[in-house]
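[scheduler] slot 2 assigned
[scheduler] job type: sequence-to-structure, two independent chains
[scheduler] chain ordering preserved from manifest
[runner] begin chain α
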Amino acid sequence: MSTPVEKIKERLSIEEVVGSYIKLEKAGKNLKAKCPFHNEKTASFYVSPDRGSFYCFGCGAKGDIFSFVEQFEGLDFMGTLKLLGERAGIPIVFERGETKSEKERLYTIMEEATNFFEYGLSQSKEAKEYLKKRGLNEETIKSFRIGFIPNEWRLLYNNLKNKGYSENEIEKAGLGKRPEAGENGLQKTIYDRFRGRIMFPIMDSSGRVIAFSGRILVDDGKSAKYLNSPDTILFNKSTVLYGIDKAKQDIRSKNYSILVEGQMDLVLSHQAGIKNTVAVSGTALSDTLTSRENVINNLGVIYRLSKNIILAFDSDNAGRKAAMRSAQIALSLGMDVKIADLKEGKDPADLVLEDREEWKNVLRKAKPVIEFQIDSVLREAEQKNINLRKIPELIREKVLPFILALEGAMEKSHYIKMIHEKTQISEDAIREDLKKIMHNAPRQDTISGGKIVGIAQVPRLENISRKLFGLLAYIEERANTKKDIDTDGIYAAIKRIAGEDIYNNLIKEVEPFKNELILETEILFGHNKEIKDIVRYKDELLLNLEEDVLRKDLSDAMAEITKLEAEVDSKDKDHERKKLDIMKKCQILASRLGEIRIKRK
């Protein structure tokens, strides 16, 4: 009997899936494109329809439709399975419901909470009236699953407890808060984090609810206007944008995204037909494309969909400052950034309600951020009657940092010329000031590090290890399989290939996710996979693991040779011997990599 993974692969070709994300061109019997996982000028990303796989000769990213979507969308295996299952029309049924991983339980809690909030809205005349006054229609409310929770202390808590969820799970999902310790240090019963609020579910790229943002319905003068979920196992503020699940297709097809601040801005923009809009509300804009753990961040998600972005933040001072900060981050990551010039005191939601055509017109007139900043400085100087001699100072402070964030010399030259034409400041003076700013600017490793969007070797190694340990857990749980496969030998092989330190760290890291790993392997294999297929999969994973370790070792050794060659004046008598030893090591590593390639043929 076919597994869901096999059924999905039967219905969805790799050409169809990858081609829906990036433009593919014929290259013989294969297809090629510029790699979406790292910056490159010449296409090195190839798709093989015959093999159902892709490979990038530039950054080493490779896999099937599942690994492509995981990497592109920033999803885990389960999120990818859900997304591709829906696309293929394959229902995903989990047979191990009674032993769901902690993560899966939390996804279920979030879904239960969303249903509860939706029901709460249906019962609240006041909440429905508020949304109607804000201009939302029934279809939009239903589409975004907007809800409401009355102002009671444990309404959601009691509902979830009655459905069998523990206090610990409710707290871990970010739905409950625990009060300070009572007498004798005893913890009191947790209470609802969200009370008396209009609830906006925040979803990941596959449409799973991972967090909430709640807008207070009746302002008591004490509570925050908006309250957002804390970071949880499911939710990290820097890895998601509100509305990304609904906006991503339009961002791809229109080749630009619109970034707004608030939920109402986003929801009303979609209602007006501008569906390539996402919002930072309830989330936080990251200054890198991937996190230290190589999890794709929110800017990374929209960067891969399109490098073109329009920022449409509120027109007040706080909104402008946020827009400029976001623009500088996006520029430094290689994005083409424009700013929508909203009238004073207006936000996108206001514009949509007043005249949706005017909202579209504002977007059409959006200017490149540097041009917008130049014009803003000149307008400010005119309005405040600022002395002309102070304009160079304002340009230096408010415009040049944006030019500094640009990657290309030609782009920089274009804007230097524009400043000269609009202010009559000489180009040489502008270039001189730019050099001074560049020299004095502190290093921003997180931003510069974000320019490479590639899938690094270490995270890929961890992904292979995860699959190996998932396979081992799967084998050990099945008595019939365990007696036919030497699991001790597999553990020993992993330790030999990866080294004892890495092996021990991996064991510690995967242990909490054992049930999840088993479930992933079961979905991949099904319940009746033959021993020979399991052994073949195990052998391929071990080869992949060894290949990645060897590549890393070879890269380190080559770097060491480069370092030694730079030390031509070294007084170390063993300098040449060290260099020769490392070169021999490189030959051995390269030879072993060649043997692995031959094995695959």
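[runner] end chain α
[runner] begin chain β
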Amino acid sequence: MTTRIDIALLSAILLAPYQARAQDSKLIEEGQRAFAEHCAACHGAEADGTDMGPKLVGSRSLRARPVPQLRSLINQGIPSSGMPAFPLPAQQLDALAAFVHSLNTTAAGSAVPGSPVAGEQFFFGKGRCAECHMVHGRGKALGPDLSNVGHELTLGEIRQVLRNPNSRITPGYELLSVQLHDGQTIRGFARGRTDFDIQLQSIDGQFHMLQDHQIASIHDEKQSLMKPVAATGEELRDLVAYLSNLTGIGEGVASGATAAPSGPDFARITNPHPGDWLTYNGNLNGNRYSDLKLINTSNVKNLGVKWIFPVDHFGLEVTPLVADGVMYITGPNQAIALDALTGRQIWKYARPRTAGLIGDASLGTNRGLAILGDKVFMVTDNAHLLAINRITGSLVWDRYMPDEPMHYGSTVAPLIVKDTVITGVSGGDRGMRGFLACYKASTGERLWRHFTIPLKGEPGSETWKGGEPFFGGGATWLTGAYDPESDTLFWPTGNPWPDSDDHDRGGDNLYTNCILALDPATGSFKWYYQFTPHDVHDWDATETPILVNTNYQGQERKLLLHADRNGFFYVLDRTEGKLLLAKSFLRMQTWTSGIGPDGRPQTPSTDSPLDCPTEAANWNSPAYSPVTRLFYVVTQEQCRARRNGNWKMAAQEVAPPQKIIRAIDIETGRVVWEIPHTGSVTPKTWPGLMATAGGLLFYGDPNGAFAAADERTGKTLWHFPTNVLMKASPMTYMVNGQQFVATVAGPNIVCFGLP
């Protein structure tokens, strides 16, 4: 039997919600006319109240009342308060009740008359609203972002603020004129304010971090910068309809054309201003070296705490960025902008953490942001890449990076290359197919994706013996480096999966435990180098690659330096991936007798009962000084012993596990000096390093101290007891002619400076 469907009936069913919405809109429009006739004399034309009657916009008591109850109240009046009864015709009562209800329901949940399409045209055209406000990445960030205004305000509040902007000023956009002692006057918004300082966003969109000693007087203007909207009744109705439909940035929503970018462009990222820290490692070559030297070996003993900013997460691993006096940090699924001089919060973006995740992403781990123009970029625990306006803190676009349902997460700080954002994924210890992805910074459009695990028929697939490695690992969870001279992207990859069970993954297992040299425009291979073929130790190669141009062994070379978790320090010619040096930096090294001229590990020379190392280095950042030509890295001495067929940590057979900072001569691989850390080794505490032109190496003691040593000798010159576990890498910056050093201690960003 063939079932026939009445087309007219089907159309009626499908169109019913839209027809109902249109009918509701007409009802509210009729109610608005009835309100003007019967109610405006007491409650005001905008329902914002008069001496004769209370305001009806934004009323919590009215918000809780259903439409039938409001209808009854209007019909019967409230004699005790002086409100008369309005025994109006039923249709008019229904309309008036619907209109009053709409004044106290979020606009997105209301039936709104008018044309959203016409309202959008007015917003970006004749109304000139986009000259101050952004919607879905379009417009300017002078005033509040309106992308979610339909969920934030009621229909009545939207109407009210369009006609009388002074009736509702968004917190953080209070207008001030600040007179400074130097005679300058700055007018703008108080994005943050205390008795001691103001974080002022001036009318041109720039931040000014003002302290009380700079300020002569403050004039609170007590008004909005916005003027009442000049529009016809129809234009205003359509504008309200458009704004009411704005319910946030959805995943995959494409941004439109934006205003000219303001803030650090790629030329500035390539050649940072003095005092900038614009990438995860401070610069694109990854060397964690700063040219600042106001803090140096002669005065570092005077360092003291300048401010502390707490984040509600104990295991912070972020490295802050600083540009133009603003610091940008991350916590779990959150980005925060701070006054870099005082640590005061300017804005915060946050979304809930994702339930049901496993691995590092489930712990809330996030290592930081990237910055370009008017945006900062971060990943989320469930592998989304977000663009956030750096002035407003509002979401601009949101992209989910994977296409396949696997154990994907993300913890990496993205990297900017030209006008793109490049980032990776975590989850290699739980089974996934690693990849690196590149997105257009302005819109979030994905330009390419490079998988680290080849499938059948792809180059490198022959190095996987057994089943096809759909879940082969090779995560890309630590930030890479970029060489502008050769236009090459260098990115480290993680271990194969399963990490210790290799019964179904014979062969070298490319491209795990590698450095990948890629064309950043296409993601295509230039070359690769694999540090640990067929890894069964969980020796991710996700340790920061450092790019150095120097005279090496009598020849000018473009080098890539890398201290691997397998215990070897590598020097590669980065133009072709040729191995120049591989030398162990450990006391105990049993897994191989050395690295051969072909770059492959050789067979161990002895049958040692110990397996060394367990993990010689980790993700925490190393540093390189062009002055000393030393490579600085946190290492760990630890072995395992075989008992009853199982590997166990070998604290008795060798010395107890110990973390040691080592300075390595890049010419020879020789350890020049070291700083042993006293005390027990706590898992997952791998604080990183930073070197400066002041002759200093800053480091965190994993057991709870922040310190500075002479980069030439390793002698510790200063320390501060934080008394909490340290897991991140320090950075330095300059504001108002002062140099600061910031690091993470437990849940806190801690900033140090000179008196």
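[runner] end chain β
[qc] chain β: The longest helix spans residues 7-38.
[scheduler] slot 2 released
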